[in-house]
Design a protein that fits this description.
- By secondary structure, the chain is α/β, with parallel strands linked by helices.
- The chain has a single domain, classed as NAD(P)-binding Rossmann-like Domain (Rossmann fold, 3-Layer(aba) Sandwich).
- The chain has a 7-stranded parallel β-sheet, sandwiched between helices.
């Protein structure tokens, strides 16, 4: 199954690699970004160079109106998406819980949890056979921190991704009979710009494979989940963490 794919956070990191990998698999791609329009435009050009259509749409998924506009723009310019990759999220600030303020915490949860759920809602409205759709696939980005806890630096981040795990399982069951599959990918430490300076070099020797992961290695799994090869895979959370 290929068609129109919407990738939130599609201009950077795992989202960017997913956009490019999906293009080579035959998907047209709507790339949403929050602020880095140059990076998103570059990924769109590479998608087009692969022979597929691409658009970029600025969106702040913490705001419902922005999410609705993102999906309406995608539908108007490319067509209704039959694939959604919820890649947009925030990792920083790294801090203990007793050092984080309420405003920062609320914004963190609005992006990582509420924003992803809003995007899934808009996708279901277009994919579900109950709404006249022809089916589709939603892939959420979780994190191994959801199970490891993140003590000392990222408990709040882990909690937000644990919410995504629960949401993935529940939504998968809710829309399974309506032609929509819902899965999640749970990366370990991946070398992206989200990582604080020096963290990759510090943590790599402590990992089972003695290295961190690459965005391509996560994108490969995401694009497989979008494909017909994964047609009976739903409600599943796949670790891409090098045995961590």
């Amino acid at each position: 199954m290929v068609g129109v794919l919407l990738v939130t956070g599609g201009g950077r990191g795992i989202g960017a690699k997913t956009s490019l990998k999906a293009a080579t698999a035959g998907w047209d791609v709507c790339i949403s970004y929050q602020s880095n329009d140059a990076s998103a435009a570059d990924i769109a050009k590479q998608v087009e160079a692969a022979g597929r259509r691409a658009i970029t749409v600025q969106a702040d998924i913490a705001h419902e109106a922005s999410v609705v506009n993102l999906f309406e723009t995608c539908e108007r310019m490319l067509g209704a998406p039959i694939g959604l990759v919820n890649s947009a999220g925030v990792f920083r600030p790294l801090s203990r819980i007793d050092e984080i303020d309420g405003k920062t915490l609320t914004q963190h949860m609005m992006i990582n949890v509420v924003g992803n759920i809003l995007c899934a809602r808009e996708a279901v409205k277009r994919m579900s056979t109950a709404h006249g759709g022809k089916g589709g696939v939603i892939v959420n980005l979780s994190s191994r921190t959801s199970e490891l806890g993140g003590a000392g630096s990222s408990v709040h981040y882990g909690a937000s991704k644990a919410a995504i795990n629960t949401f993935t399982i529940g939504l998968a069951q809710e829309v399974a009979a309506e032609g929509v599959r819902v899965c999640a990918v749970s990366p370990g430490v991946i070398d992206t710009e989200m990582q604080p300076e020096g963290r990759i070099e510090t943590i790599a020797p402590t990992l089972p494979m003695r290295r961190v992961g690459k965005p391509d290695e996560v994108a490969n799994v995401i694009v497989w989940l979008l494909s017909e090869e994964a047609s009976y895979v739903s409600g599943t959370i796949i670790n891409v963490s090098g045995a961590r």
